């Protein structure tokens, strides 16, 4: 009997998985991923040593310095729209869950990850109504498989302006800067004020000249086409209100909100879920929470799941969509909506990603993780060895590890093949990690 009891206890403690995943380590490694994505001149304290300076010649049409920022994904284009979204999400997360970053010993690194984006976004904002939104050409960039340090293709820069506006891009960039200004308020008041100054100008630009950025920057249409802009205008306005307390920004929310009342999605293209969370806190009104509850209840109970229990939206980058959902519902839980059940389901989904299905979809986490991520810079052997398409097509493992990056993830039947050739399931991207890291930080803060 005693023997049997011992087995039961071992079995139970394994099920409750108190020590299965070290979320603090995952948080640390996610920040290493952002280091690996850095473009421009790298600082002396760079921890990811297999990267070096790159794209030092990135310039605007009039020679403006556009070095810095993040490479988008497995490629080297700097797409401003998802980059700004990444900066907003990371800022929001540190702002509201600073304790998690402190607990994991990465508060400084977390702030640096934001600043790497916002320093670049400041450079892109070259005039009150002029914002560069892309450096590099999608197809030309994707045609080559090389190290970022060695690339030679043309990297033109594209902007939005008064005659070719982009309310979504300017609104999201204003949101990023407003959120970051709050993060840096207690760290460096000068930098915080600079961010807020740019945020104010960019928000006015977004509001006064309305249009879709991907109509102005047409190369982005193939990669990050914006479906519409009112959500970013309202999201930007809500962040401006949070950063300044000025009522004029809430008037813009009031003007726009009735036109975007439908479904609460959240992604680089859809800000409604995040907006409702922000408004729930800023206004104290329950309508926003009611909407979020319907959304999360539906998604958690009605969405298709894989046989092993992963929420399944689509065959391409499914984990991105799942993490975006989990972030919204973990934040809803923070506001008292079905807290226990949402947190339990979110932990289950996250644990699937970290290894419960028998495979970890996060590079460098666990014992069995992607070694062939669709990611140019980590795949290529060190200079002067050849990289190129023959390396891409080979079965050789990626030469370096892009630690902390989450890949697109499995297909409908938990199926997954670890090959560079499968971008829909095996690519990594800055925006994937933004929501993923944010969920992890919330789990750390909860003490899970
Ligand atoms: C405004 O932006 C559009 C689209 O990027 C560009 O074609 C145009 O030349 C820009 N106008 C000015 C004055 O820079
Ligand atoms: C604070 O930010 C300003 C503006 O970016 C910068 O010039 C200054 O060096 C920063 N100060 C510190 C102590 O980092
Ligand atoms: C998943 O499995 C089901 C049942 O075995 C099968 O009908 C379906 O075609 C599979 N889907 C994929 C994408 O493999």
Automatic annotation (TrEMBL):
<keyword id="KW-0378">Hydrolase</keyword>
<dbReference type="InterPro" id="IPR012341">
    <property type="entry name" value="6hp_glycosidase-like_sf"/>
</dbReference>
<dbReference type="InterPro" id="IPR018221">
    <property type="entry name" value="Glyco_hydro_9_His_AS"/>
</dbReference>
<dbReference type="InterPro" id="IPR008928">
    <property type="entry name" value="6-hairpin_glycosidase_sf"/>
</dbReference>
<keyword id="KW-0326">Glycosidase</keyword>
<dbReference type="Pfam" id="PF00759">
    <property type="entry name" value="Glyco_hydro_9"/>
</dbReference>
<comment type="similarity">
    <text>Belongs to the glycosyl hydrolase 9 (cellulase E) family.</text>
</comment>
<keyword id="KW-0624">Polysaccharide degradation</keyword>
<feature type="domain" description="Glycoside hydrolase family 9">
    <location>
        <begin position="23"/>
        <end position="438"/>
    </location>
</feature>
<dbReference type="GO" id="GO:0030245">
    <property type="term" value="P:cellulose catabolic process"/>
</dbReference>
<feature type="signal peptide">
    <location>
        <begin position="1"/>
        <end position="20"/>
    </location>
</feature>
<dbReference type="InterPro" id="IPR001701">
    <property type="entry name" value="Glyco_hydro_9"/>
</dbReference>
<keyword id="KW-0136">Cellulose degradation</keyword>
<keyword id="KW-0732">Signal</keyword>
<keyword id="KW-0119">Carbohydrate metabolism</keyword>
<feature type="active site">
    <location>
        <position position="374"/>
    </location>
</feature>
<dbReference type="GO" id="GO:0008810">
    <property type="term" value="F:cellulase activity"/>
</dbReference>
<protein>
    <recommendedName>
        <fullName>Endoglucanase</fullName>
        <ecNumber>3.2.1.4</ecNumber>
    </recommendedName>
</protein>
